Structure formats: structure tokens, C-alpha cells
Amino acid sequence: MDAFRSVLEDCDLDDLGYTGPWFTWEKGRTHVNNIHERLDRGVANTEWWDLFPEFQLKHLSHSFSDHCPLLLNTKSGHSMNKKTWHFRFEASWLLEESCEEEVNNLWLTFRGGFLERLHFTCNGLDAWFKKIRKEKRITKKDLTEKLERLNNLIPTDDILGDILDTKVALNFELDRDELYWEQRVRSNWLQHGDKNSAYFHRFASQRRQKNCIKGLQDSEGEIVSNEEEMHSIAREYFSSLFSSINSIQFDQILEKVNGCITEDTNQFLLSNWTEEVFSSVKSMNPLKAAREDGLGALFYQRFWHILGKEVAQFCIAIL
What we know:
7% strand; 13 helices; Reverse transcriptase; 8 strands; two-stranded antiparallel sheet; mainly alpha
């Protein structure tokens, strides 16, 4: 198996996942000796993932063999490109000199409630970056072509200066692109600066495929693929999960428990929170999944000196 895994790694091949029953091989006709395993699977390299982003591999029912057939449909009909746009704070925006100033101005301009203030800041940042992108209109391709032209010229002081400036600008764009993909991969072990774009692209594509929810099981056990019905199932599930059911009185139970908290410890536990909020925010992985407003831990960590007071007050009020 070690040699087999090495072959997959050397050939840049990754598991395509599946739909249908989790197993592909079955043996034994009674409950005591029945065995299920997933022995058969599809693999592909990065170029194939890019060619067929909407594929689906399905485990089919089988009767003649103890292995089930695998059906690979390169056009599953579940398009991952048809998704609703929503705001996301991009880590690469921090490379812009005006980013911090823009956040500060937006945060101080609006005087409403905390959540409304965050929403206003998000909309402002989105408009700010669209303006920045429109003004620059410089891409990696433009800079690469310019660098190639300069390298073909007879070197002079001016040309060498242009080459240096172009390299700096190109590295800046590469850093921005690296951060963009790293934020989508959310990798813990690969650090920013490793310059492994192939890794980023492959794993971002895999995450995108695996995160595409193609169906949910309702309370009756039926698989539902309609998007509105899936939203309803998800809402009902989490509403039920976080609701109290048949709550009981714990006073009689707690009367039998010996107290072990000293008065000093109790006073400490009852005291107001202060720096604990920032400690919690600081301990979060900066590029992990953002909440529904598109603001991840990185945003609060980087701009805590601007909005930290209001964030802490909001969290403490909830607690």
C-alpha cells in the first residue's frame, strides 16, 4: 500500500470521491460473515479536474459480481459555478497600502448598531477593492510579458531599473495570488511563502467538489436535491439540534454534589471578561472558514486596534 500511495503521489492523482453506497465490494450472505469494503475508486490528476469540474462518480447497484460498477459522469448537472455571490474578506487585500485606512474610515463613518456597522464596512470594502482593481488593470500576464521583453533588450541602467521594478511588481501579484488560493485551501501545514501553486489549485478544486451538496436526506429518509428543500431541511435540523427538549430541574441533583470551588475562584469566574475575547480571537486560525458575513478571524486579528472594543462589548453582551 505504501508503494501504491507513492504511485498516486508521483503521478499527481487524487481520489474523485463518490455518491451512492459507501462500499464497492461485498462478501458473505449472512449477517455474521457479511463484509463491506470500498476497494474500487476513481482517481485523476489536476488537469483532469480542471477539464471536468462538474463530474460525478457513482457506485451502481450490482448483482452478478461482488464488485459494483463505477459510473463516471463528466457532466453531472450539479453545476458548482451557479452559486450566489456573497462578500468575502480576501487576505490578499492586506497587501494593499490603503486597506487599513479604508477599514478605519468605514468603521468610524457609520454610527449604527454593531451588526449594521459590520455590514456597512463589508459593502464599503467590496466597493473599495472593485475600484482598486479597475484602476490598476495590471495582471501577472502583463508583467510577465513585460519582463520577457526587457530581458531581450541590451542592458542599460534604465533597463535594469525597469527589470527590477517589474520583478517587484510581479512578485507582489504572485503573493496576492498565493494568498487567494491559500485562503480557499485552508491548509494548516503549508505556510504562506512555500510557493506551491499546484498544491493550492488542486486542493482548492477538491474542496470545491467535496463541498458541493448534491442532496440531503429528509426526516422520512428520502433524498432531496431541490435547493430550496435542502435549505429547509438544513434549517430544521440545526434548529432542532440547538433547541432544549424536555429540560429538567437540576436543583435536587446539585444538592447531592459537594462544593469544591473556593470563594476566590468563584469571584474570578463571576468577574467581567476583558482580554479573554481577544485571546479567543487571536487563537483562531486566520484563514479558516469565515462566518456568513464573509469576515474570517484574519479580519478581526488584523484590525483589532480599530474595532476590537466594539467586538468585545458585543461578545460580552451575548455572554
